[in-house]
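## retry 2 of 3
previous attempt timed out at serialization; input unchanged, resubmitting
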Amino acid sequence: MSRETLRVFFALELPSEARERAAKAAQALRAGVPRGVRWVPPENLHLTLKFLGDVDAAQVPRLIGRAEAKLWPVPPFEVELAGLGALPSVRSARVLWLGVRKGNREMARIARKLDAAAASIGVERERRPFQAHLTLGRLRPPARVALERLEAPRGIAFGVEEVILYESRLSPDGARYIPLARLPLMQVEDAEAREFAPEI
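## retry succeeded, writing output
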């Protein structure tokens, strides 16, 4: 009997205002890129922290528990989106993105913790360095893009208080992202409790 698997990833959710402004940035990008870009729908915009791929559904509760334990010492922080870019380069772009000007260090720290949590259920550790970015569109095949002609959006800022584990359900109409768990970062009352908790 085959096991049920879920295609999952950890990410930060964008509040509605930030999502709307990021979607407008994607709309402006259309002037500097060739046709054939597969744009991310506004409702799917998110900041990926760790993509796990297909995992055994029975392992998801363990994954959530490990991730919660890893995230508990991490306090809320601010993210600011700014700048446009392409991976691996503007000469042969596969991914068009909006950059992260503030919150890079915190996101990288969380990504490392989530990588360790994922490894506890057998997911391969990430070998590439973490690069915070918001994917706006994907190109197939890769193509040259003229981002230098475009004015990058500024001041798309928001607070982060939780990390979400999403399931990605693929269909002919595209992907649908379903929250499986919301993992809160350490709040003030948690910090106080930790400070005054007796040592065991």
